[in-house]
From TrEMBL:
Transmembrane portions of the chain: 57-80, 86-106, 137-156, 168-190, 210-227, 233-253, 273-294, 321-343, 355-376, 396-415, 427-444, 450-472
GO cellular component, one term: plasma membrane
Compositionally skewed regions (Low complexity) per UniProt: 19-34
One Pfam family here: Polysacc_synt
Matching InterPro entries: Poly_Biosynth_Transport (IPR050833), Polysacc_synth (IPR002797)
Protein name as catalogued: Polysaccharide biosynthesis protein
KW Cell division (keyword) present: no
Superkingdom of the source species: Bacteria
Region (Disordered): 19-48
Main localization (coarse): membrane
Keyword tags: Cell membrane, Membrane, Transmembrane, Transmembrane helix
Membrane-topology descriptor: Multi-pass membrane protein
Location(s) in or outside the cell: Cell membrane
Length: 503
């Protein structure tokens, strides 16, 4: 069911109820109803803002932990593996993340949209139907995606990226893809129930902070007794993801069951979600997200195919520090993803724009605070975190920081398009920018090495974000870019949330 259909069904309910209950309405009742309607709308707006602020507290805390553990994992690996193996690990990690996105086939966004829309209009049975259909579809898609990843690496890993020991590494990568995809799907669905506590602990490249901590523990523990190899590191990655997968599924089941029980049961029959509708909705989402990831991460693949793995380690270390700058924008996406679909389904577009611009402004301020030290002291910071060898990537770090500033300042424009049924526009933007990145990236990397690769990456990401912002305005009717004026409402939101918590 599309957003327009949901809006229509909501309007029908709103019109039919008063007519049946009060057939002889007088004109004197109109001011009273208008006042009640205005009061209800105001309370709904305040409730949404307070809920988002409360969720953002959990998201910030959990994501800070996630970024800290992700960087901690890289700190451990650069000290237990030689630079060449570190470069290979960056390539494999990027492949795992990309393959997990493809394997989920857009269900981690499409299902959040369908479930959130149904919850937004009080249709618990419709939400259950969407979850059941999505779970069946996702199980098949993730399994096939993992198998295809193993086959691709086994036959193309050495010619493309110079990878060795693929008879061992390829199956481990496939298992990691399955675990990463299942965990990320569970984390996304938890957000549709507005459960930021568990979802944020399961969100991340390798299964979130819980997986990262387990990964770090295994790597550090064994390194105390013997030198580590790349094969052992990939084994630890697969083990940590597989151990957390059943836990994530169990948490999703319990949270979803409790949340849907709170929704009042509607006597009206709920429309089933046909598998064909789910497929048609998720396919463009998967393509858009895959191409978006290519635009954001294909530089690692280009570097792995052209430059030496030792030099790729320098570039990969600088890319890892971009997590610090991009973290505020990730927090925004994780906080507002379900609310975009809900507010659109309820026709509250103005409130949606206020929330998006408010969140983008906070994210940009936090990103600037992180970016300035990285631009001023890039060599010192990389040497302190990763070791003296990685200080040679200072120029790359400065260039990448500029692209991340544009990325954060643009706000959640791409997510807004996807969660509003305008994913085809996001898809075409990603198609164009991905092609340009591949062409420009190969040319500049072949000529200028990792510095040219950084220039291509930062430039294309900036152009892509501008395109998303413009299309979000034209198609959805909202701006997502930062707006410093919205900071004036922060004290009011903080005060209302504090009052609610103290009750």
């Amino acid at each position: 069911m599309s957003v327009k259909q949901l809006n229509a069904s909501t309007a029908d309910v709103a019109v039919s109820v008063p007519v049946s209950s009060q057939p002889s309405m007088t004109s004197a009742d109109s001011p009273v109803e208008a006042e009640v309607s205005e009061s209800s709308e105001k309370q709904g707006s305040q409730g949404t803002q307070k809920r988002l602020f409360r969720e953002s507290v959990w998201v910030v805390g959990g994501r800070v932990l996630g970024i800290a553990t992700a960087i901690g994992l890289n700190i451990v690996l650069v000290r237990v593996l030689p630079p060449a193996d570190v470069g290979v690990f960056f390539v494999l990690g990027s492949i795992i993340t990309f393959a997990a996105i493809v394997a989920m086939f857009g269900t981690h966004t499409g299902l959040v949209r369908f479930v959130s829309e149904r919850i937004g209009v009080g249709d618990a049975e419709g939400a259950k139907t969407a979850l059941r259909q999505g779970a069946k579809f996702a199980a098949v898609a993730i399994t096939l995606g993992s198998i295809l990843t193993m086959g691709f690496l086994y036959f193309a890993g050495e010619p493309l990226f110079g990878l060795k020991h693929l008879e061992v590494i390829a199956p481990l990568v496939a298992v990691s893809v399955f675990g990463a995809a299942a965990i990320q799907l569970c984390a996304s669905l938890l957000r549709s129930f507005h459960d930021s506590r568990f979802s944020i602990l399961l969100t991340g490249q390798f299964g979130g902070p819980l997986c990262n901590l387990l990964f770090i523990g295994l790597a550090v523990g064994l390194s105390l007794f013997a030198p580590l190899s790349l094969k052992q590191v990939m084994l630890f990655c697969a083990i940590s993801l597989c151990l957390l997968t059943p836990i994530a599924i169990m948490i999703l089941y319990r949270v979803g069951k409790a949340r849907l029980r709170e929704i009042a049961i509607d006597d009206q029959p709920s429309e089933a979600l046909p598998m064909s509708v789910l497929l048609l909705a998720c396919l463009p989402l998967m393509l858009a997200q895959s191409l978006s990831y290519i635009t954001g991460q294909a530089d690692i693949w280009i570097g792995g195919a052209i430059v030496d793995h030792d030099e790729l380690a320098l570039y990969g270390a600088a890319r890892r520090l971009m997590l610090l700058i991009g973290m505020p924008m990730q927090l925004v996406n994780l906080t507002v993803i379900a609310s975009i679909a809900e507010l659109r389904a309820q026709g509250r577009v103005d409130e949606l724009q206020r929330i998006l611009r408010f969140a983008a402004t906070l994210a940009a301020i936090a990103a600037f605070a992180v970016c300035i030290p990285l631009i001023v002291f890039p060599a010192q910071i990389t040497a302190f975190i990763f070791g003296s060898y990685y200080a040679e990537g200072a120029t790359v770090l400065r260039i990448l920081c500029l692209g991340q500033i544009v990325f954060v300042s643009a706000g959640a424009a791409e997510l807004t398009l996807m969660m509003s049924g305008e994913h085809m526009k996001a898809l075409w933007i990603n198609v164009v920018t991905s092609i340009v990145l591949l062409v420009a990236g190969v040319m500049l990397t072949s000529t200028f090495g990792i510095v040219g690769l950084a220039i291509a990456c930062a430039s294309i990401i900036s152009l892509q974000c501008i395109g998303f912002c413009l299309y979000a305005r034209w198609s959805v009717g909202v701006w997502t870019i930062l707006d410093l004026r919205v900071l004036r409402s922060l004290p009011d939101i903080a005060r209302m949330t504090a009052q609610k918590w103290t009750k």
